[in-house]
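Researcher: Here's the sequence for the chain we discussed earlier.
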Amino acid sequence: MNPQDNPELQDIQMRLNAADSEVRRIALLDIADFEGDDHVPFIVASLQDPVAAVRAEAAKALEAFENSMSVAALIAVLDDPDPSVRQAAARSLHDLKNQESAQFIFPHLANPEASVRAALFRALRELRVMNSFEPALTGLIDEDATVRREAVAVLGYLKQPQALPALAALAANDTEAEVRRAAIGAIGFASGDAALPALLSGLSDSAWQVREEAAATIGKLRLKDAVEQLIGALSDNYWQVRLCAARALGRLGDPRSVPALIETLNHPISNLRKEAALALGEIGFAGALPALEQIETDPDPEVRKSVRLSIAQIRATDREAARHARERSRTNL
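Model: Thanks. This is the structure I predict for it:
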């Protein structure tokens, strides 16, 4: 759009040069409402404004314009001295929707600033383009833990089996717990038992957050060969790990976990009692009914609700099994 043909746009451009910084900031809000890219250079120019609030507003405004000029400008602003401006630019990059924007990001992944590299990987995570795969693999060996974590997230979203060995190695060996935890979570895209060794290793990690993530991921993947290790995790020193282990055991449905889950029904933390009750209901083992009936009057209403649901679920499972047995009996007559 030619500014000469639009008096309103002309007025906004004049306000972008006003002495009052608040006038300039409001002008950026107004100019963002115009369609087309002709006025993007005016927004980009505002990224050099002496006032941080104006620069931050310009960075926010560029979110709507996914072209080479705006993306490159946002990347440059990730080096801004003011944290509010850097955060605004990072958010705008994170909100990119056009997958073609990735091509403007790739050349900047070697930026010397770790915070910039992390923000760019965060943007690539949302775009989910396959061309991000190799750069993300390279990002797994970045010297900065935050960058490694964001690179892991990219690979997790892409869900490529080729990434599994690198993610498993990171989950076992990275020096930072936050990276190991992210790698364990990203392994959740794996199929079959390919992820089992890394996840079992995660259950014995020194950081409870990693153990928690490993238990949750095992439950998500329903890895039946991890039952014994999950039963062991019900005795973890951290209740968060115990909770995820109980939830995972319910999903696996293995009767071997029933005694340990029954014991957990007496734990002082109500969330654990609740998860243990729900897990027993999922397993559907009739032998757990007496233990569940004993805590029907639990002081926590959420626990009582879970107990009632589980008792009903087990009885329904028992009735269904009896019905099938009768049908088989009649068939054999």
